[in-house]
Amino acid sequence: MSDMQIQENSVVQFHYTLSENGNELESSRQGSPLLYLHGHNQMFAKVEAELTGKSVGDKLSITLAPVDAYGEVKSDAIESVQVKNLSGAKKWKPGMVAWLRTAQGEQQVTIVKVGMFKAEVDTNHPLAGKTVTFDIEVMQIREASADEIAHGHAHGEGGHHH
Question: Which stretches are transmembrane (predicted)?
Answer without folding.
Answer: none
